[in-house]
Amino acid sequence: MIYALSGVFYAFGGMLEAGRIGSATNNLGFMYELDAIAACVVGGVSFSGGVGTVIGVVTGVIIFTVINYGLTYIGVNPYWQYIIKGAIIIFAVALDSLKYARKK
Fold it and tell me: Model pTM?
């Protein structure tokens, strides 16, 4: 049931994205995984287990979207944007690891 429901949501998201861009291809969402992971990690979801909140994830998505559009607006090369996103993920995971190391 969950897989069917997630498939419906993926199809709906694909239609919205195709409508936004004005076309559709088979690799339309390629490399969105990095954005999704980065937004969740910035929002407070832990890689080492634990619980994230919806408000935290939405906050992470908003922060990461502002960073994404800001980098595009100032004309940063897309390859450097991936490097910056990766650095943000590494920094957020390092902070999360320090948080859990202090708890133990």
Answer: 0.67
**Closest-CA residue to 43 (of 92, 90, 98, 99):** 92
Record the tokens describing residue 58, joined without a space: 């939405």
Pair of tokens at residue 35? 């954005």
Q: Are 42 and 92 in contact (CB under 8 A)?
A: yes
Percent of the chain with pLDDT over 90: 13
CA distance 44 to 54: 10
Is the Cβ–Cβ distance between 42 and 63 less than 8 Å? yes
CB contact at 8 A, 34 and 86: yes
H-type alpha helices, the chain: 2-21, 32-42, 54-73, 78-103
